[in-house]
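FORM 7B: Structural annotation worksheet

SECTION A. Query
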Amino acid sequence: MGYSVGQVAAFARVTVRTLHHYDEIGLLSPSGRSHAGHRRYDDADLDRLQRILFYRELGFPLDQVAVLIDDPDADPREHLRRQHELLSARIAELQKMAAAVEHAMEAKKMGINLTPEERFEVFGDHDPEQYAEEVQQRWGNTDAYRQSQARAARYTKADWQRMQDEATEWGARYRAAMQAGEPPAGDRAMDLAEEHRRQIAQWHYDCDHEMHRCLGDMYVADERFTAYFEAIAPGMAEHFRDAIHANAARNA
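SECTION B. Predicted structure
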């Protein structure tokens, strides 16, 4: 007797209206009719519907689905092979999308998984999220930003404290070098610049000498960075920028 349109709709998880439409356009016409004239589908019809739904799931429009299914040169094994290839490509694309969503979730956290009390204890008056929106707008599509967010999302309070302690200790040594009259192109200044570059690579993102050179320029061009370095030692922003450039040239 075959299956009714309602039964087939339930099997395939589509609407009766969809099956009626497929019949009207000749994509899937039932093989039989009941005595009352109602549509009846047999197993071959169900196989065809399965192939139709495979291609629809992959985004093919109905006119292309009809061409694919009614191709006289294709056999069932060829259809299955083609569907397998397309589904494999779809899976790979979905995996990329899932990875992108994970990165977005990490970025949303901003990597600062601390209580308000812990934030103040580690960062003091400095708010690590103060420029978060601007940073995401300027660099959100870069590999460095995504790498930084992925790393930061894993850091504990102890990690943040260690990072801050290292930065403070490094700043004190750079200030001492300047007070001793060290020129930007001196070995001591260049070594400190190299240490700074490696700290960035360790804690945040891969930073080669060319990227470090760009950061040095930004430390002078952006008054907020300039103020940070000037608070460590007057004249440090430009001195450090020049030391970064000298170190990059040394390692070219």
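SECTION C. Observations
The first strand starts at residue 3 and ends at 4. The mean pLDDT is 81.

SECTION D. Sign-off
Analyst initials: ____
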